[in-house]
Write a structure and sequence with these properties.
The chain is an alpha+beta fold and 354 residues long. The protein has 12 helices and 10 strands. The chain folds into 3 domains: 52 residues, Molybdopterin biosynthesis moea protein, domain 2, CATH 3.90.105.10; 226 residues, Hypothetical protein af1432, CATH 1.10.3210.10; 51 residues. A hairpin with a 5-residue loop joins β3 and β4. The longest helix is centred in the first third of the chain and has 20 residues. Bound molecules: fe (ii) ion.
Length: 354
């Protein structure tokens, strides 16, 4: 199984994973053979990538972090809580929907603790209409993994997970034209967009069921270490550690998904952008933990090697992530297997799509 962008998907390709629509309902099942009608249906639902099973990726299974079913439930929990809270004024909140967020976070905690070697991997299961909810769920998983790598306590990690799930809650109060605008925002639109942190905080501030740690994440997740962020232009130590973690994971996920850039970037490219562009704005120590928990070259990824050859990742290397085991591709078929740990002069130059 491997990830393929919808642009590259062809008639006859077999789906390796089910695809869901914006109501978390099944759009196409696993093992469905793509037809022109199906491809059109996926395009209409704004699906960017699909997992396919083909000869090249036969027998290759990536180690998944969160089961798809839990992922879908968490996205739907975020959606419900966002809708509930945005429809209610004052402190008359629907506590039940917040409970579902906590339950989903608890389930994620259990998975992370039961499988100590699990890594973060973006999963493409839903259309971009679900962006905000999908993004929230992914930032939560990633933040919890980073927090665990930093050896923070589990009660703290739980509060970070809840805060990350809710971090963009205030976006529900931003007009859709601004929220979904693809072109660069005008100054006034940007000012309105920045209000989402205060809106979100106001929606939660009287809610005793949400820890102050989670609420702080909602209010401060756009602050930057060099004081260039908002709403308070805090700097350095003024920004608490739990906020810094979510800020880093928020930016990483936004860069690697297709919203901020024209096309989806691979984990290695996204990590490189964060390293070079945000070195003064983000916490360097947290960046190293991010590097440890992101699955940079998941099984099924097609890569170009520094010697010019192409290969497909057949086994991840969790100790040295940039040196997985690859199988060389010749004439669109898998040839000899190369463990990059044995060939230290050869490295992965980039990931590509076939
Ligand atoms: Fe935000």
């Amino acid at each position: 199984m491997r990830l393929k962008s919808l642009e590259k998907a062809e008639i006859g390709d077999i789906l390796g994973k089910p695809v869901y629509d914006d109501k978390c309902q099944l759009l196409l099942a696993k093992d469905v053979k793509l037809s022109l009608t199906y491809i059109d249906r996926l395009k209409k639902a704004n699906i960017q990538c699909v997992y396919i099973d083909d000869e090249l990726s036969e027998g290759l299974e990536s180690e998944m972090l969160v089961p798809d079913e839990l992922k879908i439930r968490s996205v739907s929990a975020v959606k419900n809580v966002f809708k509930d809270l945005s429809e209610r004024k004052g402190s008359n909140y629907n506590i039940k929907s917040i409970d579902t967020i906590k339950n989903v976070v608890d389930e994620m905690m259990k998975i992370i603790y039961d499988n100590p070697s699990t890594l973060y991997q973006m999963t493409e299961l839903m259309g971009t209409d679900m962006y905000t909810y999908n993004h929230s769920a992914e930032v939560a998983v990633l933040s919890m993994l980073v927090a665990k790598s930093m050896k923070l306590s589990d009660t703290f990690i739980q509060k970070i997970g809840v805060g990350a799930m809710l971090h963009d809650l205030g976006k529900m109060q931003i007009p859709g034209e601004i929220l979904n605008k693809v072109a660069k925002l005008e100054l006034e639109e940007e000012r309105m967009m920045k209000e989402h942190v205060q809106y979100g905080y106001d929606m939660l501030k009287d809610n005793d069921f949400i820890s102050p740690i989670s609420r702080q994440i909602v209010l401060l997740h756009h602050e930057k270490l060099n004081g260039s962020g908002y709403p308070y232009r805090l700097s350095g130590e003024q920004i608490p550690i739990h906020v810094r973690i979510v800020t880093m994971c928020d930016i990483f996920n936004a860069i690697s998904s297709n919203r901020a850039y024209k096309s989806r970037l691979n984990a290695d490219e996204a990590l490189e952008i964060i390293r070079t562009e945000a070195v003064y704005e983000l916490d360097r120590d947290i960046y190293y933990h991010l590097l440890k928990v992101v699955n940079i070259y998941p099984v099924g990824t097609i890569v170009q090697l520094s010697n010019g050859e192409f290969g497909i990742v057949v086994k991840e290397n969790h100790e040295a992530q940039t040196r997985p085991v690859v199988q060389i591709i010749r004439d669109k078929k898998r040839a000899e297997t190369v463990d990059l740990m044995d060939y230290l002069t050869v490295f992965i130059s980039k990931t590509i799509e076939l």
